[in-house]
Amino acid sequence: MLEYISIIITAIFVNNIVFAQFLGICPFLGVSKKLSSATGMGAAVAFVMVIATLVTWLLQHFLLDPFGMGYMQTIVFILVIAALVQVLEIIMKKVTPALYQALGVFLPLITTNCAVLGVAILVVQKDFSLLMSLVYAAATAAGFALALWLFAGIREQLELVDVPRPMRGAPIALICAGLLAMAFMGFSGISF
Amino acid sequence: MKLLNIIYNGLVRENPTFVLLLGMCPTLGTTGSAITGMSMGLATMAVLICSNMSVSAVRRIVPAAVRIPVYIVLIATFVSALQMLMAAYLPALNATLGIFIPLIVVNCILLGRAEAFASRNGVIASAADGIGIGLGFTVALTLLGACREFLGTGKVFGFEIYPETYGSLIFVLAPGAFIVLGLLMAVFKHFSTR
After folding, report:
1. Pick from A19, A73, A171: which is nearest to B185 by CB?
2. Confidence class for position B130, pLDDT limits 50, 70, 90
3. Which range marks the domain in which residue A56 is found?
4. DSSP code at position A165
5. How much is the ipTM here?
6. Which among A77, A166, B13, B191 has the fewest CB atoms less than 10 Å away?
7. Residue of A14, A17, A18, A22 to mutate, interface with B, max B Cβ within 10 Å
8. Looking at the domain assignment, is residue A157 inside a domain?
9. Is B155 helix (H, G, I), strand (E, B) or coil?
10. d(CA A171, CA B181)
């Protein structure tokens, strides 16, 4: 049990996927201008990340490993994730139109979100069991959503501030992200 | 002359890091020192040249509806090949760059150039575009790595400029990546919009 709590705390705070591992930076910078879209993106990533981890874990352990095809990992994983996002989009459109309305625009962007592929590869490298992998994926997604949400809140305020001209837009946003990352470093003392 | 123009375009006018803001994950994640930044840039450039040339070569055969999956498979093939080559011949570097090597596959620069340039131009021009954009990426990563290494440890490419005790470690750690990139981007913007 302690093991799972440790995985959750580490993935959300200590090894935050954005601030400590530098994965998923593109959506982090791209979809963080408004709090509402940040929430939608966070939820969509969480959804896809857990399902993608489940599918890729099963593929790795029941297809790639038994047949000694580990070298196909990158190709298989990226194709599976791309196909999965498409299928999810179609299913959501039919079954839960309300959810699709909320998350739909973010889904195609997730295919090239390196956080999803990153987590799928990381759980294989760390040799996690299936349940541990799913917990890790969910916690990582929660960490991503938390980072995105905090950052969006800051950026909404940033819009109203008089910033020197060359620093406007991406540069000042990156420096704010750096300060946030510094705050997250405070968690690095936590260990189990 | 036209080829040089394409290369210059990738290096300065459409610099993937400072202008297009693409491929941010490896930019921040692998630039703890100048040498790792440069290696990552060169690895990405190698894949980019190969993928650009192959995408350009098959551009008339592939139907428009399935072109994105085809591009992804082509890119993933070259990334897997690079991964195996690096594991065999450069194991130390492979361990340092770690997960960022397989993640070249989801680097938006590759798919972006395949879609925006290689699918509309000839093989030679696409190779030139790969060299230009790849060089732009490599220069940006090396510069960022060198700045972080200099501020953090007092070294550039491992050569000591001032004693390490005076460096501020924060620049080598995660927050420094964001801050130094933000400042470099502001400098680039200042000079390019004057």
Report:
1. A171
2. very high
3. 20-186
4. G
5. 0.86
6. B191
7. A22
8. yes
9. strand
10. 7
